[in-house]
Specification:
Its EC number is 5.1.1.1. By secondary structure, the protein is of the alpha/beta class. It contains 12 helices and 18 strands. The strands form 3 sheets. Strands 1, 10, 13, 14, 15, 16, 17 and 18 form an 8-stranded mixed sheet that branches. The protein has an 8-stranded parallel sheet with strand order 8-7-6-5-4-3-2-9. A two-stranded antiparallel ribbon has the order 11-12. Helix 6 links the parallel strand 5 and strand 6. Bound molecules: pyridoxal-5'-phosphate.
């Protein structure tokens, strides 16, 4: 007997195809491929090495950037939240890393740093998301300080971030873009505002640099549009195996809290995956799981190491059969809806014990 436990298959050909789709949507823009959170759970270095076409990579933490450098990645890398410590400035300079600036503290750290070559800086403007970025009223002050400093490379990139671009009917995106245009249109600096949803849904926002994350991994960034519809291919497939089959009778319950009750005599399949692997604990009864060419519904609460599914009274399934939790035939977007979350969270929550192929 040999039973496979939770396994993630990474399809790097799909990744490269998705990159091609993105390029065809924004042929005149450079691409900053976003690899934060371990490449959205796909593996930081693995994804970076599979994208030699990208113009730059974006990460959230300096540790991620240094991991890429250690692995031999020489492409430009941008810290998307900037530095968190003045001492990081010297590390940026030494490792040829670029940074976003969005606070006075970061500005001062850069202006006063003792470095022997200029840093490449991206100035982040808050156009309405109210998370990171300087207020439009601070723009002139930051722009002129950065432009004048010998510590800053001439190629200062001006950027912002959309809050609602996934919804094509939401007016916020146009309002944010108008604010961005008003501040930056007259300047010759490169500009960047589009994430995946901006790339797919808001062509006018592409500017000089696009910043795709989710799309690269084959997931739709737009509400009401499937990945298939956009031509994207899921890069991650999550699978595990049936480790037990239980016969249950009408009226009996399954799992913790007896949260699922059997309506008709049936068989319950136990699959070796749970929230300890990153399968969402809040996936509700009915969440689809692919098994032997059909969808079977989750029945009962997700445990740490197992889930239970209703196989039906006439099932032919056996111990050792492989189930797909999400992937090409079962979009992670759909599972996310059943778990009242977003695909981003499911992808980057895959845990250490899951084997990658
Ligand atoms: C994460 C991130 C992105 C990528 O967003 P997606 O929705 O995954 O495409 C782009 N820009 C910034 C600043 C980010 O933090």
């Amino acid at each position: 007997m040999s039973i496979r436990t939770a396994t993630v298959h990474i399809d790097l050909n799909a990744l490269v195809d998705n990159y091609g789709i993105i390029k065809s949507m924004a042929p005149y823009s450079k691409v900053l491929a976003v690899l934060k959170a371990n490449g959205y759970g796909h593996g930081l270095v693995r994804i970076a090495k599979a994208l030699p076409q990208a113009d730059a990579f974006g990460v959230a933490r300096i540790e991620e950037a240094l991991e890429l450098r250690t692995a031999g990645v020489i492409k430009p890398i941008v810290l998307l939240e900037g530095v968190f410590d003045d001492a990081d400035i010297a590390i940026l300079a030494a490792n040829n890393l670029q940074t976003i600036v969005h606070t006075n503290e970061q500005l001062n750290a850069i202006l006063s740093a003792d470095i022997d070559r200029p840093l490449k800086v991206w100035l982040k403007i808050d156009t309405g998301m109210h998370r990171l970025g300087i207020a439009p009223s601070q723009f002139n002050e930051f722009y002129s300080a950065l432009s004048k400093s010998d510590n800053v490379h001439d190629d200062l990139v001006l950027m912002s971030h959309f809050s609602c671009a996934d919804d094509l009917n939401n007016q916020t995106t146009s309002q944010q873009f108008a604010i961005f245009e008003q501040l930056t249109q007259q300047l010759s600096n490169p500009r960047s505002i589009a994430n995946s949803a901006g790339i797919c849904g808001w062509q006018q926002s592409h500017c000089d640099w696009i910043r795709p994350g989710l799309m690269l991994y084959g997931v739709s960034p737009l509400i009401g549009k499937s990945s298939q519809n956009i031509g994207l291919k899921p890069v991650m497939t999550l699978q595990s195996s049936v480790i037990a089959i239980q016969q249950v009778k009408k009226g009996e319950t399954v799992g913790y809290g007896a949260a699922w009750q059997c309506q008709e005599n049936t068989f319950i399949g136990v699959i070796a995956i749970g929230y300890g692997d990153g399968y969402p604990r809040h996936a509700s009864n009915g969440t689809p799981v692919l098994l032997n060419g059909r969808r079977v519904p989750l029945a009962g609460r997700v445990s740490m190491d197992m889930i239970t599914v209703d196989l039906g009274a006439d099932c032919q399934d056996k111990i050792g059969d492989i189930a797909t939790l999400w992937g090409a035939e079962l979009p992670v977007e759909e599972v996310a809806t059943y778990a009242t979350t977003i695909p981003y969270e499911l992808l980057c929550n895959i845990t250490r014990r899951v084997k990658y192929i």
